[in-house]
TrEMBL record:
Keyword Methyltransferase appears in the UniProt entry: no
InterPro entries in alphabetical order: LysR_HTH_N (IPR000847), LysR_subst-bd (IPR005119), WH-like_DNA-bd_sf (IPR036388), WH_DNA-bd_sf (IPR036390)
Ranges for domain HTH lysR-type: 1-58
Name of the protein: HTH lysR-type domain-containing protein
Annotated GO CC locations: protein-DNA complex
Amino acid sequence: MNLNHLHYFRVLAKTEHYTQAANQLDITQPSLSHAIAALEKDLGCYLFEKQGRNIKLTKYGRIFYEYIDKGLQEVDLGERRLRELTSQENGWIDLAFIYTLGSHYVPHLLQSFLAQSQNRKIKFSLKQGNTTEILQALKEEKYDVAFCSYVDNQPDINFLPIAQEEVVAIVSRSHPLAVHDSVDLARLKEETFVYYDRQSGIRPLLDSLFEQVGIEPNIICEVEEDSAVIGLVAINYGIALVPNIAMLEQFPVKKLTITNPPHERYIYLATVKNRYLPPAVHTFCNFIVHHTSIKNPHTSD
């Protein structure tokens, strides 16, 4: 069944006049007559009947019109909604990011982006999670873009470094190490650790740091979210390695700079390769690239 024919039928049903309907549709009257005849042939019944010089809907035409009018209204709404979502100036961006970015990085980035006059009408849907969950949902088209950790063996994902985070050790203020400002991880062999779970993007980096100093950390519990890690350290349940984020200032913990081993922690803009992205999403990604000068550690010169 031809969608144009349904649209023609709706206009003709409203006017009940071939000439008026053809003028509104900007088509010839024979073209309109041919379309209605084809539609009636598909349906196996007459939709219109003559009434003097005009026409009117048949009983079956009235029944059909009720459904077609509602259906085409939904199509019109869907088209308008899609144009809004894919508009460069009025688009919608589904953005996901890891927990550490929620209190400072993402709010300030959006503030800068939306401060530009051409971007002010763009809207965001924001979701937080761990890197594993975010990348899976990104592949499932639940998000347009994501900020997360780098993950090996993800051939469908483009990773672009956009920020760096320092990793620090944290202890409760009553812990013996709280009198220090820095620490060598090699000296933490006897400590108990509150650790990130295996779904977290920072977990491979932490494992690597301990491997470099020849320590297998004594893990008392594994946690997904940063505030839970910091909260447990604050009550002296263990110590932890965490990104140096603003949230640390809200808890009674002491930050210790890690002097050994040397390390770098990156945050990445992740997108799915060869996937269509609406203009507003392209604008957002280009804005990020323009404001990023970090070299990608996972590519060669």
